[in-house]
Fold:
Amino acid sequence: DTGVSQDPRHKITKRGQNVTFRCDPISEHNRLYWYRQTLGQGPEFLTYFQNEAQLEKSRLLSDRFSAERPKGSFSTLEIQRTEQGDSAMYLCASSYNIDSPLHFGNGTRLTVT
Amino acid sequence: GNSVTQMEGPVTLSEEAFLTINCTYTATGYPSLFWYVQYPGEGLQLLLKATKADDKGSNKGFEATYRKETTSFHLEKGSVQVSDSAVYFCALRNSGGSNYKLTFGKGTLLTVNP
Structure:
């Protein structure tokens, strides 16, 4: 069990650029979650996958955001035309089933200049 | 909707002091309650949980009791250590429909001095 891995750890980008983050969940976990955490706030739910199916997408995710989980393994979160308000820590988590604890990665910190 | 309110930090204590971090919640149905801890530079880790009223979660000397009558889940530890310095998040997960979604409080930064 190597834990949930996120890449990159840090990303600095200019406003208007596209960015993509990757999450590798714990191998036997079929549920994967993305959360966003801004300074001084707790994590906020963004989206949820069961295997490759995206079952919910929060209203926090505008149409500039898209997440995928091809083949039910790793996941990517893409932000198009980034804005300064997108600056945050993006957290990925996975779990074995709906009642299992969530295991979080260390996050990707995005800074939009 | 669901919400979690935690006492604001930062909280600064001396080693071996008693710790309480207050947490209250608003939820429909019968939520499960959690405390997560985030050590510097690391991801969130589950510290303890309780799934029904009057349950007590405990781990690493920390305890929290699910109080339905006061909608609270306060975190306590009798004697804190320097290694307990971290950010602590209270969270809930609702039963029913969207029961995969965690709602977090804002977090409380704890610093323990030797």
